[in-house]
Design brief:
Blueprint lengths: L6 H18 L1 H17 L5 H17 L13 H13 L1 H4 L8 H37 L4 E6 L2 E7 H26 L1 E2 L15 H7 L4 E2 L3 H6 L2 H27 L7 E2 L18 H23 L16 H24 L1 E2 L1 H8 L6 H12 L3 H17 L9 H11 L8 H7 L2 H7 L8 H44 L1
Helix pairs in contact: 2-3, 2-8, 2-19, 3-4, 6-7, 6-12, 6-19, 7-10, 7-19, 10-11, 10-12, 11-12, 14-15, 15-16
């Protein structure tokens, strides 16, 4: 019988897991060793001399770097590799106490949380950059009138800023989801040991403070069995990917030659090998595909957490790290591309303005004007406008050839009499700019209303920028506190 590890197990499981640990968990592991040794000494569980020996060993391993901690067959993982080196440097009597009142279980979950929290902060920072780019573009197009769509058909005149205000609102909600995922991720499981805690008088809050965790998970069962911090992160990424995919759809449609609404910058355009006229906005196709890839990675995280024991299991340890790392990395790549696309995007303003009133998109305002000017109930006013549009379509007339005479004929058909409605009132009611201007209530499409929404999204953006800065500062402060405490003990 072959001895542990079997070559196939080593090649397919242990080596990839070891490489992931070396890449993402090495520094969190050393920091956790420092914090644990400091706490054990402060609690009187081990001597200061013992703690100092461990701290010196950790410092030596950090100086040697992870490159000198390669995989060794027969040593199961990075934890045992590092622990063996600590015992070698500090001596068996001192180094052997490092794992006192601690297990690979609570340590492993803590290290993953420490690694993923930094990845989530990186994702958070990238999304802020995208929102800044969209915010800037929206302010440039407060007065850019264009067709708005429902069910992929022309519906009513809008402005590009109004559309982007919706995008900014959605992205702000996704930013909040990422921050909530970070808050769930940044909770300390340390002190749970294998599952049930420990009989030693440890200070779990002290370790959490030294490592930058915002709080301690009280339930030692949940410390080891938790998966919601992983699925929360995956869910936040899925939500953002879905939102961006819908925006991608809109951009692709509006970049077509037929729509001719916007222009993707030449730096993102590829040509055809045979058709000289082609201008392919392939960056949006790559983004669409990469968002699908991102969704796949994130869904893998969810499925790995499905129907597994609520306790210690590899499903939510080594096995879940690759797909969640990949989901975050893929999303960050997508956001970086989107930021550049929005920063270089241009619009065909005059063409959009001409299109805005085509397709009878101002018929709603005509009905509204009939209510205001003639006193008709809205349902009857809607019937009159709908009759006029239906007759025009039947006669093959475009929206810019509607006349007051046609409106009066429709009124005679729909309500049995003509209306006290002037040529000027009729012309104004069908004007796209008038349609936009009068919709000036909260969240409306009017420039003043849209500007107010953009002011609000800018305020949310500022709050989110402050949140990121505070989170980064708390981690940096904890790192400085731990290093200072270690230096004092060594002194």
């Amino acid at each position: 019988m072959p001895s542990f590890p079997h070559s196939a197990y080593s090649r397919t499981v242990l080596v990839p897991a070891y490489e992931d640990s070396a890449r993402y968990l090495f520094e969190p592991m050393l920091a956790s060793h420092e914090a644990h040794a400091l706490m054990l000494a402060e609690a009187g569980i081990i001597s200061q001399e013992n703690a100092a020996a461990i701290l010196r060993a950790v410092a030596q391993i950090r100086a040697e770097s992870v490159e000198n901690m390669g995989y060794v067959p027969g040593i199961e993982d990075l934890f045992f590799r590092v622990e063996g080196r600590i015992i070698e440097l500090a001596g068996a009597d001192f180094g052997g106490n490092l794992q006192l009142a601690r297990s690979r279980n609570d340590l492993g979950h803590a290290l993953a949380r420490m690694a993923f929290r930094h990845m989530l902060l990186g994702l958070d920072a990238d999304l802020l950059d995208l929102r800044r780019a969209v915010q800037k573009l929206a302010h440039e197009h407060i007065d850019t009138i264009m067709p708005g769509y429902t069910h992929t058909q022309p519906a009513q005149p809008v402005t590009f800023a109004h559309y982007l205000a919706g995008v900014l609102t959605a992205l702000g909600k996704d930013q909040a989801r990422i921050q909530a995922a970070y808050a769930n991720m940044n909770e300390s499981p340390l002190g749970a040991a294998a599952l049930t805690g420990t009989g030693f008088p440890i200070d779990r809050a002290r370790v959490a403070l030294l490592l930058g965790f915002d709080t301690v998970i009280a339930s030692t069962q949940h410390c080891i069995g938790a998966g919601d911090h992983l699925t929360d992160s995956a869910a936040a990424i899925q939500s953002l990917a879905i939102q961006l995919s819908r925006i991608t759809h809109d951009l692709l449609v509006r970049a077509t030659k037929e729509t001719n609404a916007l222009r993707i910058d030449d730096s993102f355009i590829q040509i055809s090998s045979i058709m000289p006229q082609k201008r392919n906005p392939v960056v949006l196709e790559h983004l669409r595909a990469r968002l699908s890839r991102t969704l796949g990675y994130a869904q893998t995280v969810v499925l790995l957490c499905h129907s597994i024991p609520y306790g210690d299991t590899q499903d939510i340890e080594d096995e879940i790290m690759p797909p969640l790392v990949a989901a975050i990395a893929a999303m960050r790549e997508c956001i970086t591309l989107y930021t550049s696309v929005f920063a270089t995007l241009t619009l065909n303003k005059e063409h959009l303005r001409a299109q805005a009133a085509q397709g009878f998109t101002t018929a709603t305002e005509l009905a509204d004007s009939l209510v205001r000017e003639t006193g008709l109930p809205f349902r009857l006013a809607h019937k009159v406008a709908a009759t006029m549009v239906r007759n025009a379509v039947a006669d093959g007339l475009p929206s810019d050839q509607l006349t007051l005479e046609r409106l009066q004929a429709a009124a005679q058909t729909a309500v049995g009499y003509t209306l006290d409605f002037s040529e000027a009132q009729f012309t104004r009611a069908l004007d796209a700019q008038h349609f936009v201007a009068v919709r000036n209530g909260l969240g409306g499409v009017a420039p003043t209303a849209t500007s107010a929404v953009l002011d609000a999204t800018a305020q949310v953006l500022a709050v989110d920028e402050h949140w990121l800065e505070s989170a980064q500062n708390r981690l940096a402060a904890a790192d400085a506190m731990r290093r200072s405490a270690a230096a004092q003990m060594l002194a």
